[in-house]
Write a structure and sequence with these properties.
By secondary structure, the chain is of the alpha/beta class. The chain is built from 15 helices and 22 strands. Among the domains are: 143 residues, NAD(P)-binding Rossmann-like Domain (Rossmann fold, 3-Layer(aba) Sandwich), CATH 3.40.50; 91 residues, Rossmann fold (3-Layer(aba) Sandwich), CATH 3.40.50.720. Helix 7 packs across helix 9.
């Protein structure tokens, strides 16, 4: 049933109505991205098949996840047939090889023309050839480029320097801001109900307290050291950041360590601004190449772990130190050193997803990951209903979801207080044309409204059911 509903506009046969709402997804590549997506989906009892040609990866999957693990290559028609591709709803090609991902999608198109195909592509040369990647030629429905997603995330963080996480929804008109509540904050110890006069400006959508994620109610109290996620309209951003003491002045100076693809893309984005930007890298040839492409950004050939070099570059006066080398241990060291020398904020690239909670615990301000960016981007195509974007929140036990309200779903045309909304989920904002509504119990969702929803991970399947077209519509 889901395959027909999700991928085509054909009527649903009567005999399909009682079938279980389950999606079959084939993931090619059992590395960090593939493993993490499979883990999320297996926890939701979805039908997942993971393909990898590495014996160790397959063993890791078999020992840790409740999914089918298949040894072989995603470029093998035989292996794809063995995975059950003819009955699958989606193929996610997430290996570290762009070429393997491209060929997997091309083969999948010929083996199952109705399935959705998502490819992780990192090489900018491929991305520039948009016609080459079209569904007609290679059969790819959606391309995920983790580098561009991560650069957007870093630029959003720079827009709100005091925040630990900033996520844009509805083209940036609505922002989700995550920040840690200080002990001396005027909001510490206060119930959410006490935020009088702020109801139409913001909504607290989630609270992370130690290892627990809470979808709060009005009677819940904010505590010191809570990581709080707030939904705010972009036109109220300055007021809200000032209210929560997140405003730290104008962004003036940025130092980037590392000159790979992500660092280059970030430097290029900052090259056209008034922000004083420097980029440091040990590779002299890479530095020479960058200096020819960048106009205002200063390129320095040196070691970002060199204390004397950082002091010489006046690291204590920098607004952001961004560590983006290919070595995560070096990135962690660079960020810790920068903080000790006085840098206001650090952004640290970490590849291994299992490292992220540990790194946050030792005093690193903000962690970014190309692999986590890929996971976030892929999740939006896996969720049922008309999902525009998905952002896993810190700890990965909750999600912020941007969705469109469908005319025939149970969520429209009734006051929110009467909607059977699953416990553990809350609507943070309703976007209707140019209007942005912070909802109350008497708010009514209309068809085609954009919704920003917070949900605990175990509640996601119930939420998807609420957002999906009702069967009787057919």
């Amino acid at each position: 049933m889901i395959k027909i509903l999700f991928l085509t506009k054909l009527p649903i046969p009567k005999h399909c109505v009682q079938r279980k709402l389950q999606v079959k997804i084939i993931i090619v590549g059992a590395g960090e991205v593939g493993f993490h997506i499979a883990q999320r989906l297996s926890e939701e009892n979805q039908d997942v098949v993971l393909i990898d040609k590495d014996h160790k990866q397959i063993k890791r999957i078999s020992e840790n996840l409740d999914v089918q693990a298949l040894l072989g290559s995603g470029t093998s028609p035989r292996v794809l047939r063995e995975s059950g591709i003819k009955e699958a709803d989606m193929l996610v090609a997430a290996t570290d090889s762009d070429e393997v991902n491209l060929i997997s999608c091309m083969l999948a198109r010929n083996l199952n023309q109705y399935m959705l195909k998502v490819a992780r592509i990192r090489n900018t040369e491929y991305l520039e050839e948009k016609e080459f990647l079209t569904q007609e030629l290679l059969g790819i429905d959606h391309v995920i480029n983790p580098h561009s997603v991560m650069v957007k995330a870093i630029l959003s963080l720079m827009e709100v320097p005091g925040a630990s996480e900033v996520i844009d929804f509805v083209g940036g008109r609505v922002k989700l801001i995550g920040f840690t509540v200080a002990k001396d904050s005027p909001f510490t110890g206060r119930q959410l109900l006490s935020f009088k006069g702020l109801e139409e400006k913001l909504l607290v959508g989630a609270i992370v307290r130690k290892d627990q994620v809470l979808i709060p109610r009005g009677t819940d109290t904010i505590q010191a050291d809570d990581l709080v996620y707030v939904v705010v309209r972009n036109d109220e951003l300055d007021h809200v950041t000032e209210l929560f003491n997140l405003k730290e002045g104008i962004l003036r100076r940025v130092i980037i360590v590392g000159a790979g693809e992500t660092a280059m893309a970030l430097a290029t984005a900052l090259d056209n601004t008034k922000v004083s930007t420097k980029i440091i890298d040990k590779d002299s040839e890479r530095c020479a190449s960058l200096s020819e492409k960048l106009e205002r950004v200063i390129v320095i050939n040196g070691d970002g772990t060199d204390r004397d070099l950082l002091q010489e570059e006046n690291i204590g006066d920098v607004d952001f130190m961004v560590a983006l080398t290919g070595d995560e241990e070096s990135n962690i060291l660079i960020s810790l050193l920068a903080k000790r020398l006085g840098a206001k904020r650090t952004i640290t690239r970490v590849s291994k997803l299992s490292y992220i909670p540990l790194v946050s615990a030792i005093g690193i301000d903000t962690v970014v990951s190309t692999r986590l960016s890929a996971v976030r981007a892929i999740l939006q195509y896996i969720r049922r209903g008309k999902i525009i974007s998905v952002a896993p929140l810190k700890g990965e036990h909750a999600e912020a979801i941007e969705a469109e309200a469908l005319e025939t779903s149970d969520i429209v045309n009734v006051p929110l207080s009467k909607v059977k909304f699953p416990k553990g989920a809350i609507i943070g904002a309703i976007v209707r044309g140019e209007e942005i509504i912070i909802p109350r119990g008497d708010s009514v969702i209309r068809p085609k409204d954009r919704l920003i929803i917070f949900s605990l991970q175990p509640v996601v399947p119930k939420l998807e059911k609420l957002l999906t077209v009702k069967l009787e519509y057919f």
